[in-house]
Design goal:
Elements: H1 18-23, E1 37-42, E2 48-54, H2 56-60, E3 64-68, E4 92-93, E5 99-105, H3 108-116, E6 119-124, H4 131-134, H5 172-178
Antiparallel strand pairs: 1-5, 2-4, 2-6, 3-5
Length: 212
């Protein structure tokens, strides 16, 4: 296809929201009104199980509309593109920051206060902090099927069978043979994120009680 016939590639395309942003008319999360605010109680442990959780004091706090734990959330696996499926909340906690409970309240301050009123008892389990150590057969199992996550199964929910994934480009053996020098080392690369103007936020509005 000739470049002239293309509508987007190779052409300057105006950003739809550019005018609203530069004039200050664009709405960000702080500009939007919410009836309820949700705060998450996260795990302080790298690997643990919830032995007991008591949310009664949090539920009685004025302004608290709901408190959710793994007991109230449907145990339905959520598929992800680049990691194994997980439950929204689980009594088995697998990293610092894993979701323990969620509080919905009429203000952020009340929601945060309610988090402090949740009583928890954890069973702290052996954890792994290095990917190479975690891949060893002797490593503590973060998942029942093991720590190595396979990606060649038919669907995301069928994965996780200790099958390692490997991606290759070109002939690396030939490249080594033809190279003037070969250097080997280990490199750790942190996740790369864009510079967002605001944190990630989800806003929802309930319109009907009909379930389809």
């Amino acid at each position: 296809m000739a470049r002239e016939a293309m509508k987007v590639i190779g052409k300057s395309v105006p950003i739809m929201e550019a005018r609203d942003k530069v004039t200050g008319r664009a709405e960000f999360v702080d500009d939007m009104k919410a009836e309820l605010f949700v705060k998450i109680l996260s795990s302080p442990h790298a690997h643990a199980r919830i032995k007991s959780i008591d949310t009664r004091r949090a539920e009685k706090l004025d302004g608290v509309e709901a408190v959710l734990t793994y007991k109230e959330v449907p145990q339905r696996l959520i598929p992800f593109r680049c990691r194994r499926p997980c439950y929204a909340m689980d009594e088995h906690l697998r990293y610092v920051g894993d979701y323990v409970a969620a509080v919905a309240a009429t203000s952020e301050a009340i929601a945060e206060e309610a988090l402090d009123l949740i009583n928890l008892d954890y069973e702290v389990l052996p954890a792994v902090f290095d990917p190479e150590e975690a891949a060893k057969a002797t490593a503590p199992k973060i998942y029942p099927e093991g720590n190595v996550y396979g990606t060649s199964m038919k669907t995301p929910l069928e994965r996780g069978t200790n099958e390692p994934s490997l991606q290759e480009w070109g002939d690396i053996t030939k490249g080594f043979e033809e190279a003037d020098a070969v250097l080997g080392d280990n490199f750790d690369v942190t996740p790369q994120l864009h510079s967002a103007l605001e944190p990630h936020v989800c806003m929802a509005r309930w319109e009907r009680d009909e379930i389809r």
